[in-house]
């Protein structure tokens, strides 16, 4: 391949450098040889590369969940999609519209069952899509303005500073500067997400299908239904997977959606270790509460969110425009710089450079194990099976600035030079689930650029239970931060794929240690719109259709409260004080109730059978609500001014509100 254009993803590139190249190929986890077009064009994580589907069982309860929307955990995985961003002018009519829509929404159980059948059929067919198997999915998310409209009130009882509730209420336009959306990515030029209140987006209706005709019919039907509801489409975003050799790839030509987190209770664990996904040894299993509110979180931390959020997930929607010829021209320019400095072999191409910017070759192979060759994983295997960074602290094999390493450092995050890397488990709380899909036509390097001015890019959709600690942390502290990984001299630089314009440090091994070459990178991905929405459970949507919204802060079963944790319901706050006492305080900080459990190291725990206890550092029970034996019980901190353990509508224990239990 020459440097005139990027590698076609279905092909294989080998940079030969004598014995060194042979050695590198020897350690590549995949057999040498030409990959088939079907294998190279279908990215891992799509049905063609799926691991054998695990049967539904009591060990995987989330696979059979009919109350949560399916795109969060299962993923729609369709070739064609359309997002309708909606505004309503009448709350009562919008509620009627919502009530009629809820039965059409696709659940986790539906999507999981279909995806398993589709994956099995595609694997059997050697990577070809099964002709007789198709589906059309429907999903709904609501913005802060949409929740407020439907509920007729503020959806959060309080907006603590620095919380996800605050971030959600403000939205990405108000937080654009700290997210790096400045310059030509600033909200002033956005196509959606920065509207005036009278045109604010209230809902995101997501429609997807295998058959474009079925999708078109669904879009037309739902658009027509907006009339009686006094609703309108603020913005319509059509999208679809690229075709031909680029199927499963984004516009720069790289396989997309490969590295998704595994979810406990949804993905089957590998029986050999229990910490990774069966059939995908490179994929860690993450507690489901990092993506679905109400499930167990890393460290059993409290979600601190209202009861209406249980069973749902915060959704980030971003339209990211891609300048394809500009990005590849930059790769060629940096190739010349690297060759001049001696940091790249003479045989290296623009694709060799681009692979280091991404951390993978176009077909999905990580450069960590195959530095000189594109060698896609065989159909049905995990391309990340051996992907680790712990033995590469300097970034000699996978640069520290590489896109996939910036966004997921795995086991290779060194927080200070000379220190051992953090354990991969320490980063579980930073993962997000990505559901991106391209929009616009693929760029054809054989045609004049002046004839290809059509918009193109990626519709990024991400799910997480905490906007601040997941999406925003990744964006601010990792992807955009030129000093991440921290404390290196010279600094690493920002992510050259998604980050702002920044110099990056390309490190290579030398006789005296590490040699640094500084490279300048411009910005070729531009934000053209952004929204924060919430994808509620079906029970919450049914309640909203009746104008109801339970704003009580819920403490989910299995949650641990530690010193300093505060659950803020506006009028009252439940907190474990630094001295170990569990207390209920009013807005002014006056004591309404105390467990009387002063003692260093104490923690409070709400058990699976409905008991709230305060335990000493040694594990001894110091206080109990006396409500054990009620596995369906709920612990709520209510804006009315109390905290209560409920079994259905019956109060098992109650404190505050003029009563102490």
TrEMBL record:
Database matches in InterPro entries: Bulb-type_lectin_dom, Bulb-type_lectin_dom_sf, Dimeric_a/b-barrel, DyP_N, Dyp_peroxidase, TAT_signal
Keywords: Heme, Iron, Metal-binding, Oxidoreductase, Peroxidase, Signal
SUPFAM superfamilies: alpha-D-mannose-specific plant lectins, Dimeric alpha+beta barrel
Biased composition annotated in UniProt, kind: Low complexity: 39-55
PROSITE patterns, per database record: BULB_LECTIN, DYP_PEROXIDASE, TAT
UniProt cofactor(s): heme b
Region annotation (Disordered) ranges: 39-62, 169-188
Recorded GO MF terms: peroxidase activity
Signal peptide: 1-37
Span of domain Bulb-type lectin: 552-661
Gene3D superfamilies assigned to the protein according to its UniProt record, in alphabetical order: 2.90.10.30
Family per record: Belongs to the DyP-type peroxidase family.
PANTHER family in UniProt: DEFERROCHELATASE, DEFERROCHELATASE/PEROXIDASE
Protein name, entry field: Dyp-type peroxidase
Species of the source: Streptomyces katrae
């Amino acid at each position: 391949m020459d440097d005139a254009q990027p590698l076609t993803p279905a092909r294989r590139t080998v940079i030969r450098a004598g014995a060194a190249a042979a050695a590198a190929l020897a350690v590549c986890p995949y057999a040498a040889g030409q990959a088939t077009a079907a294998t190279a064009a279908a990215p891992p994580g799509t049905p063609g590369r799926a691991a054998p589907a695990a049967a539904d069982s009591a060990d995987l309860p989330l696979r059979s969940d009919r109350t949560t929307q399916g795109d969060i955990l299962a993923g729609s995985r369709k070739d064609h999609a359309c997002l309708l961003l909606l505004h309503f002018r009448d709350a009562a009519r919008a509620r009627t519209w919502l009530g009629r829509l809820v039965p059409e929404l696709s659940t986790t159980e539906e999507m999981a069952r279909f995806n398993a059948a589709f994956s099995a059929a595609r694997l059997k067919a050697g990577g070809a899509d099964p002709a007789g198997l198709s589906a059309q999915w429907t999903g709904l998310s609501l913005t802060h303005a949409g929740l407020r409209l439907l509920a007729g009130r503020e959806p959060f009882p309080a907006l603590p500073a620095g919380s996800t509730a605050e971030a959600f209420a403000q939205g990405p336009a108000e937080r654009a500067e700290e997210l790096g959306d400045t310059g030509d990515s600033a909200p002033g030029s956005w196509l959606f997400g920065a509207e005036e209140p009278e045109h604010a987006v209230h809902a995101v209706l997501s429609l997807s299908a295998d058959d474009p005709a079925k999708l078109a019919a669904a879009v037309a039907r739902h658009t027509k239904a907006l009339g009686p509801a006094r609703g309108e489409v603020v913005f319509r975003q059509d999208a679809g997977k690229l075709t031909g050799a680029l199927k499963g790839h984004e516009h720069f030509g790289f396989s997309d959606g490969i590295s998704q987190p595994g979810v406990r209770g949804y993905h089957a664990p590998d029986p050999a270790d229990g910490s990774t996904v069966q059939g995908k040894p490179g994929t860690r299993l993450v507690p489901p509460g990092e993506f679905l509110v109400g499930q167990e979180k890393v460290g059993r931390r409290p979600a601190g969110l209202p009861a209406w959020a249980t069973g749902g997930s915060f959704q980030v929607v971003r339209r990211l425009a891609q300048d394809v010829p500009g990005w590849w021209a930059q790769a060629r320019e940096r190739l010349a710089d690297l060759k001049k400095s001696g940091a790249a072999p003479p045989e290296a191409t623009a694709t060799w450079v681009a692979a280091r910017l991404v951390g993978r070759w176009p077909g999905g192979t990580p450069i960590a194990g195959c530095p000189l060759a594109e060698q896609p994983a065989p159909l049905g295997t995990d391309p990340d099976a051996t992907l680790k960074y712990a033995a590469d602290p300097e970034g000699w094999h996978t640069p520290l600035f590489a896109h996939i390493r910036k966004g997921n450092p795995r086991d290779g995050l060194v927080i200070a030079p000379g220190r051992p890397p953090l354990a991969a488990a320490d980063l579980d709380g930073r993962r997000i689930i990505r559901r991106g899909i391209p929009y616009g036509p693929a760029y054809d390097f054989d045609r004049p650029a002046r004839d290809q001015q059509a918009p193109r890019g990626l519709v990024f959709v991400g799910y997480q239970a905490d906007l601040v600690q997941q999406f925003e942390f990744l964006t601010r502290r990792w992807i955009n931060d030129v000093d991440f990984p921290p404390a290196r001299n010279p600094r690493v630089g920002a992510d050259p794929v998604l980050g702002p314009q920044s110099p990056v440090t390309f490190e290579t091994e030398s006789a005296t240690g590490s040699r640094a070459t500084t490279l300048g990178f411009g910005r070729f991905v531009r934000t053209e719109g952004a929204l924060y929405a919430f994808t509620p459970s079906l029970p919450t949507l049914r309640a909203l259709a009746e104008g109801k919204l339970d704003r009580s802060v819920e403490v989910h079963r299995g949650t641990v409260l530690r010193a300093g944790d505060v659950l803020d319901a506006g009028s009252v706050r439940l907190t474990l004080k630094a001295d170990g006492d569990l207390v209920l305080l009013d807005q002014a900080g006056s004591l309404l109730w105390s467990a009387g459990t002063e003692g260093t190291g104490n923690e409070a725990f709400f058990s699976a059978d409905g008991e709230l206890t305060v335990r000493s550092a040694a594990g001894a029970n110091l206080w109990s609500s006396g409500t054990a034996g009620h596995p369906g019980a709920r612990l709520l901190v209510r804006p009315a001014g109390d905290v209560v353990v409920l079994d259905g509508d019956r109060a098992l224990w109650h404190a505050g509100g003029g009563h102490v239990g």
